[in-house]
Amino acid sequence: MPLGIKIIDVRKIIRNIFVLFGVSLLITSCNPSEESISSPDGSLKLTFLVEEGVPMYAFSKGDSEVIQPSSLGFKFLNIPDMNADFEIIGIHKKSANLVWEQPYGEFKTITDKHNKLFVELQEKGGKKRLMNVVFKLFNDGLGFRYEFPKQEQIDSVQIADELTAFTFPEEHEVWWTPVHSDNSYYESFYQKTPIGDTDTINTPATFETKDGLYLAIHEANLTDYASMTLRKVKSNQYVSELVPWANGVKVYAKAPFVTPWRTIIVAEKAADLVTSTLMLNLNEPCVIADVSWIEPSKYIGIWWGMHLEKYTWGQGPKHGATTKNAKEYIDFAAQNGIDGVLIEGWNEGWDGDWTANGTAFSFTQAYPDFDLEEVCRYAATKNVRIIGHHETAGAAKHYENQLEEAFALYQKNGINAVKTGYVNKFLDGKEWHDGQYGVRHYRKVIETAANYQIMIDNHEPVKGTGLQRTYPNLMTQEGGRGQEYDAWSADGGNPPEHTTIMPFTRMLSGPFDFTPGTFNFDYQVIEGTRVQTTLAKQLALFVVIYSPQQMASDLPENYVDKPAFEFLKKVPCSWADTKVLNAEIGQYVSMARKDWNNDDWYVGSITNKEARQIEIQLSFLDADKKYKAEIYSDGAEAHYRTNPYPLVISSKEVDSNSVIKLNLAPGGGAAIHFTPVSTE
Ligand code: NOJ
Q1: In which domain, by residue range, is 121 found?
Q2: Which residue in 65, 391, 478, 484 is the catalytic one?
Q3: Within a domain: residue 487?
């Protein structure tokens, strides 16, 4: 029997929050055509206006225009468009200031402090249809969404286009990836160009302005809607472009409904993009009443061996997921305090071209050389978590048909974490991963998994939009170019700058199952393709890349007797606090993160292909404590291309006034573990 999740009435909670903290102001009588709010700290300003019937918004920071007046509205296939002839019939303002707790994350607590402007619009002519626009202005940026209230004038709609414009005062530089052209699940390199050189781009898209601001456009709470991409209209303007169904419809909806939040983070430093909590604040509170079973986890896996062609997913002499191999991995995890073991290729359906259409996959039938029950029994005796695996090759319906049985089987065997995968350009042969079809499918999987108390690590996903707040069993996702490309990608793998870009782009959409942890750089699947970092940088990535299910991805034999492995054993994957100490997108980044469970801190610092000296000011440490700093840094000869291995491990006593100087090699990095020194 699946265990039910208690769905809490989120609207009631939100109403209570406003009763407790809100100041509400209702303006209805004066029929204004313009209204503004400021962020709680007064630095940001949002203006809503109706100009000749067209709803518009403008957004600024101090004297800098962030978004010039930009239009809002919709085109429909089955009813007349709603983008003109509007008047304001109601304006409500509210403020909120509250703190909420996460079950795990990059911060233990999050402050939701914002001012809200709720605008009720009505068409002046025709059927006098209603549409609302809601703005929430935080100190770190803006979120806004459309609401279609229940009304006699609108029932079911087919959205042909959402017409949200983002008009900048000038042509900015933007970090972007293309939509669907290289691949359909965001695994392209980010590039930085002027807006004019882009076409249609994915979000998060990160902009650098000539005023020295950093902006990131994305969306929050993508629920039963199509994902938003940005179509360039002019060299200073994008308009929202929703990912369509195969038949061209963008979204099927029925009033009342709301859209996801359109979000714009505004930061004076690139570093501040990373610590923005805007997206999480714009998602609904947790709906899972008991989250005690949701646990961050570090894991190894029968995985890299397949990518290195040491093993196969399918049957044969090199089959990786055998009972024997699984037990050896479990032993290794138990001996080294690693929480979990991922097992891929255990089930029927991998033989031949498994990427073809996925309908051969069974999620309940194991291959004859893999005894699921026995492996799970053995893992339990060693206190090791098994992470199950469901590769669908995009056959979403086929998977949905087996979902209950598949999760029930795992639950029966004590498995409470599953990695899912969708390697195929389309879902079910024709639908995009990030259209409404995909959004519905992925949500169904997360909700069903929650019913079976199962955590999800979703590969080839629709982009993250902060749903982990509402469904904390959505632990992590791929949705970015992961380290697996360094095994088999014909382009040589991920260049050193890749991971200095991801924190400011892909990772703004949530946790990333990048799978760091390479210790052996001497494999060769394709000539010239290899992990392009030093060993020290691999350690640093465990701090820089947030993933509450975090993989130590190399083969166990490559970790044996390696002093560097001590860092991987200790480093946590859930953080009470996060600080970005210094950063330049595409060049370097240093982060300090505090262990969720104790007073230890960790620092990860990484560079692109340039060697550099970085000074780490330790002012984040507790002022009244002394710490032992264990430093893992690049050795003198280290170089990502010629000699990734040299690593120096040193230790010293430090306090919050200390500064640590790090020499990062080309493609290198450094990792530091700070432990309070007992003064007794
Ligand atoms: C692609 C995933 O990203 C990778 O991690 C996995 O091993 C394969 N699909 C097989 O499911």
Answers
A1: 14-281
A2: 484
A3: no
